[in-house]
Amino acid sequence: MFIDKVLFSDKTPATLKKGLDFHSDRQMLVSTNISNVDTPGYKAVDIDFAKQLRETAGSRDGLNLAVTDKNHIGPSDNAVKQMTPEVFEEPDAAKSNGNNVNIDKEMTKLAENQIMYNAIAQLMTKRGSTLRSAVTELVQQ
Questions:
Q1: Which class for 75: exposed (0-12), middle (13-18), buried (19 or more C-beta within 10 A)?
Q2: Which pTM does this prediction carry?
């Protein structure tokens, strides 16, 4: 049945869940960077979920997905689920004590990350609401 394919067989839930996982991990990394702003020799680290998702999808500039079958496009569900955060060191210049944490940059990343996390959580909630409306045949709220 077509409605089953549309509602239950896509890769959206796995991608959204992985997005929440990555942004949660990034929040921890950025918080650690901020807490080590005065630690001599500490190097700021980060992860880039969007870049890794593009690489998993096989695209560098966007989501140019290759069609392997008329009914399937994009990365497999397992490819998304198996993505793990790749931590990299920030290339910012170090201060005299060897620390390269830029507090303004880290606070900006913290705010941006929180906004992205909340947006993904809202998408998941809206998706659940859409599914619930489809099953119960009620108008969405």
A1: buried
A2: 0.72
Centre a 10 Å sphere on the Cβ of residue 138 and count the other Cβ atoms it contains. Answer: 10
67 forms beta bridges with 73
Alpha carbon distance 117, 77 (integer Å):
21
Mean pLDDT score of the chain: 80
CA distance 4 to 63: 25
Could you tell me which of 77, 72, 98 has the C-alpha nearest to residue 15? 77
What pLDDT does residue 127 have? 82
User: Looking at this protein, which amino acid is placed at residue 14?
Assistant: A
Burial of 89 (0-12, 13-18, 19+ CB in 10 A): exposed
CA distances to 10, 68, 89, 93 from 73, rounded to whole Å, are 10, 6, 33, 42
